[in-house]
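Dear colleague,

Thank you for sharing your sequence with our group. We've completed the structure prediction you requested, and as agreed, I am returning the results in plain text so they can be pasted directly into your records. Please verify that the sequence below matches your submission; if there's any discrepancy, let me know and we will rerun it promptly.
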Amino acid sequence: MKTRKIVITGGPGTGKTSVIEALEESGYFCFHEVSREIIKEAQKKGIDQLFLKEPLLFSEMLLEGRIQQHKDAEIVEANMVFLDRGVPDVVAYMNYFGNEYPPVFNRVCKEYLYDEIFILPPWKQIYTEDSERYESYEQAVAIHDHLAESYKFHGYRPIEVPCGPVEERASFILDQLV
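Please find the predicted structure tokens below.
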């Protein structure tokens, strides 16, 4: 049995974590965002924003984490797993910030494939900044555009999840997967 790998992506502050948690509470296997852990580890070492200080190192660490999640998803005994972001997110952020990166970043996007991509649009009413999210709402909108572009460039057709209560968003995703 092949496990379907479903990515939930979107710019900062769009409700991805809440949707992932709702799916997990409903019994689905979910992989959580790896960037928050990388950021917290860097902050423990006195680096406030690793992405701003060493963007390529940060992105390489993200890429490694997301590839590992993809590999781990292959061995999960479930019909489908949900991932909070996928490999093409790394390329999208590097493009957004105008950072150069080696060709391997795009190559692994074509190697580690997903079955469906759901993208949560910017939603000003729920957007908040926190210790790991430093982008303004306007930047979050621009990042969303780069994410959509990155997934399309890598051969996906992201499905936009309508704004609404968390449970409705999770139900929308599940209804699309039937």
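Summary note from our side: The chain has one domain: 4-176.

Kind regards,
the structure core
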